[in-house]
Amino acid sequence: MRVLVVEDDQLVRRGFISMMPWKTYGLEVVGEAINGEKALEFLAHNDVDLLFTDLLMPVMTGLELMKQVNVRYPHIGQVVLTFHEEFEYIQEALRIGALDYIIKADFEVEQMDDVLQRIV
């Protein structure tokens, strides 16, 4: 499965990409984007199966990106990766169709396998 990671904080994005055991689950990170608009540009020219996105980013939020992806690329699975623990964000992401909602502050190395097993 081909993965796109959308996160405006480069350090967080690179750290997340480097710490996940992608290959163990047959996943490959094929792209990165700093906001929803850049993600849609990437998706227009590349095949992606799974999208990890932050929620609050400049230009286009993760929630708006998820809505656009549902319309344009309904085959792409979506996972939220964010610092925001507010119930309203979680509820909206799940309503839009998020496969999982990962809180960055709570995310530990031990959780990686569980998360990827649920998603794949």
From TrEMBL:
The lineage of its organism: Bacteria, Bacillati, Bacillota, Bacilli, Bacillales. GO terms for molecular function: DNA binding. The keyword Transcription applies. The modification 4-aspartylphosphate is found at residue 54. One of its GO terms (biological process) is phosphorelay signal transduction system. Keywords: DNA-binding, Phosphoprotein, Transcription, Transcription regulation. Residues 2-119 form the Response regulatory domain. This is Response regulatory domain-containing protein.
